[in-house]
UniProtKB/TrEMBL annotation:
Species the sequence originates in: Devosia nitrariae
Ranges for domain SAM-dependent MTase RsmB/NOP-type: 154-432
Name the UniProt record assigns to this protein: MFS transporter
SUPFAM superfamilies (alphabetical): NusB-like (SSF48013), S-adenosyl-L-methionine-dependent methyltransferases (SSF53335)
Active site (record annotation): 362
PROSITE patterns: SAM_MT_RSMB_NOP (PS51686)
4Fe-4S keyword on record: no
Gene coding for it: sun
Amino acid sequence: MTSSKEPAGLAPRLAAAERLKSILAGEAFAPIGAAEIADGRDRALANRLVTAALRRHGQIDFILAELLERGVPRKSGSFEAVLRLAVAQLVYLPELGAHSAVHLAVEAIKRDRKAGHLTALMNAVLRRAQSHATRYWSLPQSLLLPADAARRWSSAYGESAVTRFAGALLAGAPLDLTLKDPSPERIAALGAVHLIADSVRVAERDRPVDALPGFAEGEWWVQDAASALPARLMGLPAGARVLDLCAAPGGKTAQLVKAGYQVAAVDADPARIGRLETNLDRLGYKAETLTTDAGTFAPSSLYDGVLLDAPCSATGTFRRHPEVLWHRTAHGIAGRVSLQRALITNAFRCLKPGGTLIYCVCSLEREEGKDQVAWALDTLTGLELAPIVTEEVVGLEGGITPEGLVRTHPGLDPGGVAGGMDGFFVARFRHRG
């Protein structure tokens, strides 16, 4: 709690530092909400600072390495988080004012018993950062991506694509929606542009998502254009029984219902199933929902189709979750690969002979994509690849590999509309019986 005598702007700075500190410790980024900061302007400022610090994390690493000869002091509480926010403001958000960046950073750590003894260091470091701000602003964008990830992705997607990755990281993700009815009238009412199929993009908006036209009426749902691809590829007749594994928050479930399938949605987390049910209720859609482990779920009768959006490294979502760039390790990815294989195996067990299995991940990593396809074909007797053809993804032909797999990334523009898309991998299989 801050008193009325405390400096203007300190409260959002403290909230931003607390959020960034938790992210640096390994938590996922989530915007600061109204329950934490009631004032809309203060909340927007706090989120802007955190977002800037996350998107510029690699460049700020370089800056801190230059300014702190001995590195960040150990056991120093909020010092690093406050320092990163202040550097982000000084170098990349100069319109917010240099004086407030320095002054509020010092005031913030004074209120932390683990960092208060470092006020002189904070002031000195930030004064040096301020004097070099012009040079730091010109640091290469190549610093934005971890070096090992940049090497992997350059090999997989090409250097020009990875250059676009860095730009996409700074730009963030536009708002993509899946429409029940992608009519010109609905698209115009949203101020959107058409992407592919029933996906549209709202590049700019002046109100919250739930205040956009058609939200209350359940006319659309938020879904990145890449995430909307897998469900469209099921290719079964209306009335088919389809299982959606790891289904929450329900965007793909909604697509499957829209396609006319009888859908069962599985997720292990009761809170996430509750969110899925709320989303379907708003849309006026019905699906059977099951709170159970997707890796052990044993249906009483087999399904015509199974869609598995498996837990993964989520490196393809870095435009909206910049922290994944720095949180993911080879060891962590290996653990997810093992989990994915268990889930693929159970998805296959749930599938009728002749049925269709869609496997997808929001990952840019080969281990979670093409390598999993090779493993599944070698391991699961009766499973064969059902190649995806360009006619099924009109407007995104560049996202189809020679093997008939879908591979999107932030350097691809769906339907030729600027703004990129998440990194997604999709494979379609059939149970040949």
